[in-house]
Design goal:
Number of domains: 2
Helix content: 10-25%
Number of strands: 10
Strand content: 35-45%
CATH topology of the largest domain: Alpha-Beta Plaits
Structural class: alpha+beta
Order of helices and strands: EHEEHEEEEEEE
Number of helices: 2
Mean pLDDT: 87
Oligomer: single chain
C-alpha cells in the first residue's frame, strides 16, 4: 500500500483517514480508493476498533470520506488544524473520520420499541415502519437507539 514519496520526506503526510467500527468491506473499499487516486501512504496504523491511514493529500482524503459515506452510510466528521507555514501560507492537516453503522440498507431494526426497515443511509438514517409504513429519519448521533434484529 505505501508508495515511494519522491521529493518528500518518507513520513510526510497532510491528512489522516480514520476508519472506526467498520467491516472489512469498508476497509477494502477505502484501500481501493487510495490506490485508484494514486495517493501516497506513508503509514498505516491499526488500532482496536479501526485503521488510520496517513495520506499526502487533503483534498483527495476528503473525497474518500465523501465516497465512503455515499456508499456505506455511516457518519463522517472532518477536522483540521494549523500544522505550519509553507512559502508564506498556512498549511493545515486534515483528519477525516468515518464511523460505520452496525446495519445496512434493507436490514430490520428496532427503533423506539417498533420494527423498522432501513431504507436509506445518507446524511441521516431513513427508516420505514414495517407495520404502519410510517417513515422516520434519525440523526447519526442518535443511532445508538437503533438495534439490529438478529
Amino acid at each position: 500500500m505505501a508508495r515511494n514519496l519522491e521529493g518528500k520526506h518518507g513520513s510526510y503526510f497532510e491528512a489522516v483517514l480514520q476508519l472506526r467500527d467498520v467491516s472489512q468491506e469498508v476497509v477494502d473499499f477505502a484501500e481501493s480508493e487510495i490506490d485508484r487516486l494514486k495517493m501516497n501512504v506513508p503509514k498505516v496504523i491499526i488500532i482496536k476498533n479501526g485503521v488510520d491511514y496517513l495520506l499526502t493529500d487533503n483534498t483527495l482524503t476528503r473525497r474518500i470520506g465523501r465516497n465512503l459515506q455515499a456508499k456505506f452510510g455511516g457518519k463522517t466528521e472532518e477536522t483540521s488544524s494549523l500544522w505550519g507555514m509553507k512559502k508564506d501560507r498556512e498549511v493545515y492537516r486534515v483528519t477525516v473520520l468515518f464511523r460505520g453503522v452496525p446495519f445496512k440498507k434493507n436490514d430490520l431494526v428496532i427503533y423506539q420499541g417498533e420494527e423498522y426497515k432501513v431504507k436509506i443511509l445518507s446524511k441521516d438514517i431513513f427508516l420505514q415502519n414495517t407495520k404502519t409504513g410510517k417513515k422516520v429519519h434519525v440523526k447519526y448521533k442518535d443511532m445508538k437507539e437503533i438495534k439490529k434484529v438478529d
